[in-house]
Amino acid sequence: MYLTVSLPAEQAQPTDLGTWARSEWHIENRLHYVRDVTLREDAHRTRTGTGPVVFATLRNTSIGYHRTKGATNIAEATRRANHRPHDLIDAVTRSNPTRQ
């Protein structure tokens, strides 16, 4: 693995570099992997106009919704949500959203 930083060598401490590298993989594993594997984003055929941005936003919203509901397995949460589509619609359109 390579990590590119714009710090002088004396400021790029190994512990800091390790923390930055782990935080990058944390994002990769919690978001990008879920979008690519669980939601099959790479197989999606929308490639022009605003379609890719709209669908990426919807995927991120879905993942965020499931995470705020305590889901750790997004694939399982998505399958469960397929049987209750009104839950997400109610949460998004509710006039007084509640915080967890």
Summarize the model shown.
With 100 residues, the protein is mostly helical.
Strand and helix order? HHHH
**Average pLDDT reading:** 82
Shape: elongated
Strand content: under 5%
Structure in words:
The structure is a single chain. The protein is mainly α and 100 residues long. The chain has one domain (13-93). 61% of the residues lie in helices and 0% in strands. It is built from 4 helices and no strands. It has helices spanning 14-38, 51-68, 74-82, 85-93. The termini are far apart.
SSE blueprint and pairings:
Blueprint: H1 14-38, H2 51-68, H3 74-82, H4 85-93
What keywords describe this structure?
single chain; about 100 residues; 4 helices; elongated
